[in-house]
């Protein structure tokens, strides 16, 4: 072996060692810093057809990211939210960056939990009375979220986040699309066809070929994520129709989710106008609510201002 080859090998192994040490350090910091979720009291496993209706009730809920224990929170991401959503209603959540839209979706998935409110803030408003008589609670189809098994809750609610998550590069496309291998090959192809991604995937070796998320554009990643939700919706439809879809992306295929209660975060007016109701947020509070077309016409409305 020449000196050059030896040097190349040393550099390659050294780089690998550095990468591995980095991974170990990230795992160590993850296990030290990330608190385990407590599943106390979450003993209800809803029957397969739930959430069949998709009714949502939020009564006086506040939430914060920092963990203060029992101490009051200075910065609330969500501040005394009260919102009822009827089964099958399509609600768009609007508001400036940082107003709490994504945090609201995290609430439904128990990725953010309610915290006690420090004190009534600001003047009482129509949409959010500051003297709230109800205990703070979120319920889906009249079941308090805190009593539903967290895993079941997350498995039942379809969520499309802003930043889609992919399995490590090299994982087959099919596993990325359907990690539990619950769907048939034709189900997978059909879901990818529904979002016009099948031709692209097929040209790269099809379902069993390894997928490198880096080779997908941001739009393609969102479409892939949408194909996952379509596939899960179609598999679920064999047991029950309806459910809850949380959308934190701009592109939606309404046709695929007819009958679902939809809560969508949106910045695009064109998308919002087709919804039943728009909820405008500011500083973690609901500041306006109503039919999008009506609010868009109302002089001085916050929605119009956006
Ligand atoms: N991981 C986090 N840690 C701490 N604070 C956070 C975190 N995520 C959001 N926040 C804070 O919570 C508040 C609400 O943020 P959120 O992401 O819900 O807003 P948003 O309306 O979805 O914004 P955007 O339109 O930019 O996505 C903001 O004050 C934000 O700084």
TrEMBL record:
<dbReference type="GO" id="GO:0016020">
    <property type="term" value="C:membrane"/>
</dbReference>
<feature type="compositionally biased region" description="Basic and acidic residues">
    <location>
        <begin position="45"/>
        <end position="55"/>
    </location>
</feature>
<feature type="domain" description="ABC transporter">
    <location>
        <begin position="56"/>
        <end position="306"/>
    </location>
</feature>
<dbReference type="GO" id="GO:0005524">
    <property type="term" value="F:ATP binding"/>
</dbReference>
<keyword id="KW-0378">Hydrolase</keyword>
<dbReference type="InterPro" id="IPR027417">
    <property type="entry name" value="P-loop_NTPase"/>
</dbReference>
<dbReference type="InterPro" id="IPR017871">
    <property type="entry name" value="ABC_transporter-like_CS"/>
</dbReference>
<dbReference type="Pfam" id="PF00005">
    <property type="entry name" value="ABC_tran"/>
</dbReference>
<dbReference type="InterPro" id="IPR003593">
    <property type="entry name" value="AAA+_ATPase"/>
</dbReference>
<dbReference type="GO" id="GO:0042626">
    <property type="term" value="F:ATPase-coupled transmembrane transporter activity"/>
</dbReference>
<feature type="region of interest" description="Disordered">
    <location>
        <begin position="116"/>
        <end position="137"/>
    </location>
</feature>
<dbReference type="GO" id="GO:0016887">
    <property type="term" value="F:ATP hydrolysis activity"/>
</dbReference>
<keyword id="KW-0067">ATP-binding</keyword>
<feature type="compositionally biased region" description="Polar residues">
    <location>
        <begin position="122"/>
        <end position="135"/>
    </location>
</feature>
<dbReference type="InterPro" id="IPR003439">
    <property type="entry name" value="ABC_transporter-like_ATP-bd"/>
</dbReference>
<feature type="region of interest" description="Disordered">
    <location>
        <begin position="35"/>
        <end position="55"/>
    </location>
</feature>
<protein>
    <submittedName>
        <fullName>P-loop containing nucleoside triphosphate hydrolase protein</fullName>
    </submittedName>
</protein>
<keyword id="KW-0547">Nucleotide-binding</keyword>
<dbReference type="InterPro" id="IPR050173">
    <property type="entry name" value="ABC_transporter_C-like"/>
</dbReference>
